[in-house]
Write a structure and sequence with these properties.
By secondary structure, this protein is α/β, with parallel strands linked by helices. It has one domain: 2-Layer Sandwich (Double Stranded RNA Binding Domain), CATH 3.30.160.150. It contains 3 helices and 5 strands. It has a 5-stranded mixed sheet, with helices on one face. Helix 2 packs across helix 3. The relative contact order is 0.16.
Length: about 160
């Protein structure tokens, strides 16, 4: 056996023995406390929350016909601030922040504590690539919305259902 194969096997064994696993692989998969959900007042996160809830094989309703757990946003703040300045005083990096707080309610009664998510991303900036940076900024916002929806849905199994 070559030294490379032995080294690769040793690395693989050391990584797996410490409990490392890729995001979304392994770990306990918990089901959501309700099987019917309604998404209200989500200010741009609706499609991302919808997609994440669908991954958990639950029913999503849009009307008040059936009793459903409701997710609504209490807070939605997005900001773009100057992250760093260059030596000559021009912007060299922006800091994007997204703060979201969501509340779950069932039949008009709040269930559990509000779920708070805070995300930060950095983007380098250059005046000569302005159009490319605008597209990159849009992709960053979409990525942050998707991550916020994932984090909200990931925390839903831990609320106590009162039915």
């Amino acid at each position: 056996m070559s030294k490379f194969k032995i080294f690769a096997i040793c690395c693989l064994l050391s990584i797996t023995s410490c409990g490392f696993h890729l995001r979304g692989v392994g770990g306990e998969v918990r089901s959501l406390p309700y099987q019917v959900w309604k998404i209200e007042q989500t200010q741009g996160l609706e499609e991302y929350l919808h997609d994440e809830l669908k991954r958990h094989s639950v029913q999503i309703v849009h009307k008040n016909d059936a009793p459903a757990a409701e997710i609504r946003l209490l807070q939605f703040e997005r900001g773009r601030d100057v992250g760093t300045l260059s030596r000559i005083g021009t912007v060299s990096e922006y800091l994007f922040t997204l703060r979201v707080a969501a509340q779950v309610s069932y039949q008009g009664v709040d269930v559990g504590e509000p779920i708070a998510v805070s995300l930060n991303r950095r983007q380098s900036y250059a005046d000569n690539d302005l159009f490319g940076k605008q597209l990159e900024e849009e992709v960053l916002w979409q990525d942050m919305y998707q991550e916020a929806a994932k984090q909200i849905v990931r925390r839903l199994p831990y609320i106590q259902a009162n039915q």
